[in-house]
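Record type: ASSEMBLY
Status: queued
Input:
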Amino acid sequence: MTTTTTTEGKAGGGAQHISLRKVLGPVHVWALGVGIVLVGEFTGWNFSLAKGGAWGALIACWYIGLLYTCVAMIDSEVTSTVAAAGGQYTQAKHIIGPLMAFNVGLYLVMAYTMLEASNAIVVGDLLKSFAGETGYPDLDVKPFIVLTIAVLAWLNYRGVYATLTVNFVITAIAFASIIVLFFSVSPASPGKVLLHRELFTDLPYGWIGAIGALQFGMWYYLGIEGTCQAAEEVRSAGRSIPLGTMSGMITLLVAASLTWYVASGLMPWQYLGQAYTPLYDAAKLTGGGALQAIMFIGTLFAALASANGCINDASRSWFSMGRDRYMPEWFGAVHPRYRTPYRAILFLIPIAVVFALLFYTRLDLVIGFSILSGLLGYTFMSFNMMRFRKLWPLGSIHRGYVHPFHPWTAIILLLLCTTVYFATYLGYSDMLLSIMAFYIAASVWFAFHRYKYVKRGDQFTMPWPRPKGY
Amino acid sequence: MNIWVLVSYGAWAVSILLFGWMILDALAVGKQYKEDFLMSSREGEE
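Status: finished
Output:
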């Protein structure tokens, strides 16, 4: 590793180069992926019940679980080979081309920044409800939204190791709270506490309702693909990224299934489909003050972990785009002491704060933008994987991990994404079309204005042989 | 004054302090180090 001290590179000093610090292991990758996602089990997934009832929500849970398993497998293979910050942006740059890379980079920045804003809103709402229970229902959430973003951005600014170690601790506590809730409802004795038989109905709006529920199934897993943003800061990308991502995906499948099982056995779908804190409500129904406190802390920690991971991921994407001049080069700077992309972190703070403060009463809108940006990214991944295996077949380059069932994984991913687009169109057609228009306008800006600044000759950094057929 | 009002003022104050610290630190780094050095990281490189 290039040694960088505080004296090197100072104004008037010698010329060296600096890099992001490689200090992370599989545990940090797990904490990044699961940390971003787990808040979705505490709030959001349950809106699927309003469309599809309990069975529709279970279909969404496993259907979207399959979609994200494909995402995790594909990501693990490509990132174990393209081990650089920027994740899917960098992959698109190497495998498809500049316009796709620009769009994917933008999807990532928007998805994570919007999710960060949403999480800050959730933290504010939680504190408001807590203040309400202590006799002060008129708490202004804005200072707490801003404080959440400020503290987490500061943590990210100061170094990736501390940031993701904190994320590991609070994510593990949040996951443990789901396990505690599960064992508190006597899961081995159906009918004692859990009333599935009494509460379950047929699909309330038929199969079209079940399809409509798919969009909300995304909340269970949205963000697990963020693990690959750590690729440039892990000690061994070939080992840590697949291990952290796949173990994270298994954790989420378990957490999602437990969440659905407990909540749908305690509350009717009509209530659950519009609840804001379903797991906290479940604790209120079944346990005393201790369980409620545990679920309150679990929800709070999950939201903080998610926002923390989102700042990490959005800044790495923006930093990578700056480094290649897809965005102004100024953003490609690394902090000489903390070795973080500090200008990218700073730049994205006001964007997250403005979105959170402007739209703190429209959480669904902010989350919707995040989900659709993520979905566009997954659609890209299926094409990316097909092209990656075609241009660099197995054996032509070293891969840290080779995912099984190719090309079926990519084909299934594309089909599942198409269904979710349809589901989104059913409920949020205006939002879907607006977001498409936004990305088309951004692409035109890139093609006709920004592309001339891109470091075209320096973009391809991987030591790979010439692609097959070229 | 209600405790929650005080906590809200505290939240604003801590936020301003943290944002201020980051901005000042970024400005100091920009003065102490050459731009070429700060932007010398290379993709995927150690």
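Annotation: The two ends of chain B are 54 Å apart (CA to CA).
Annotation: Chain B touches chain A at residues 2, 4, 8-9, 11-12, 14-15, 18-19, 21-23, 25-26, 29, 31-46 (CB under 8 Å).
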